[in-house]
UniProtKB/TrEMBL annotation:
Keywords: Transferase. Signal peptide: none annotated. The keyword Transferase applies. The keyword Acetylation does not apply. This is GNAT family N-acetyltransferase.
Amino acid sequence: MELVELVELEENNLDGKGCYCLRSKPNSSGYINKNDWLKNRFNEGLKYIKIMENSKPAGFIEYTPIEYSSRVVYGENYIVIHCLWVNITGKGYASKLIKKCIQDAREQNKDGVIVVTNPNTSWTPSKDVFIKNNFIEVENGPYGFELLVHKFGNSPDPYFPNDWDDRLKPFKELTILRTQQCPFVDIATDNVVKGASKLGIHVEIIDINSREELLRLSPTPYGIYGVIYKSKLISFHRLTVHSATKRLKELVNK
């Protein structure tokens, strides 16, 4: 018989249990940076919960109050899901994690739960499981982003900004905007830097350190990672070195 349990990470057990992503590479900069990032977020109300099957990780969910969220979405008194990922499917583990988040939001007297999805990348969860758990899609953003919400009452819907094109204009040079919310950001950054070096392009890296900066600068609703060159969005997720080089090369002489 399978033993299924939810394990909440906290500062006092983080070193022993660690984050879910990159767990096979605990000495990598991404894994270390993510754990350090988590330690600074728990006091803001962030929850990081792993689901375990027979003491082995089967998935996780991460969520936090909107005022501390790493997603570019506006609203008040909501919880925002950053990530949801399960590696053992067909057993309802994703729904179990979502229901835990909804339960926490109710207990905290929030107005509901928000999630940002995108069918074009694995860096965001699929919206299907959220629709199954009574989320509704309330808005679409650029590059395929979708805004879903599970509300408890008649509070105003959350919403995306509408100035996405204007956000790109100041960045003429190759620029990476990032936070350490995702442990794959370091790998994604390195691949762009390597691709740019092949073309002799200098890379400016901006580490976003506050939600105010994120809401003002991020080129997409995803928030934590964006690559811009000549006022064009190159990517909001990890590219291979080859793909990064190819995309940059298309703009070099324009």
